[in-house]
Amino acid sequence: MDTPLTETFRTTAFLGLGAMGMPMAAHLAAHSRESGGQTLVWNRTPGRAQEHAAQHGSVAATLEQAAVADLIVSCLPTSAEVDEVLAAAYPNLKSGSVWVDCTSGHPDAAPRQRDLLASAGVRFLDAPVSGGTVAAKAGTLTVMVGGPADVLEAVHPQLAFAGKVVRVGDTGAGFAVKAVNNALLAVNLWAAGEGLAILGLRGVELGAALEVINASSGRSNTTENLIPQRVLTREFPATFGLGLLAKDAGIALDMAEQARGSAPVIAQVTGLYRAASRVVGAQEDHTAALKLIEQMNGVVLK
Ligand code: NDP
Question: For the whole prediction, is pTM greater than 0.90?
Answer without folding.
Answer: yes
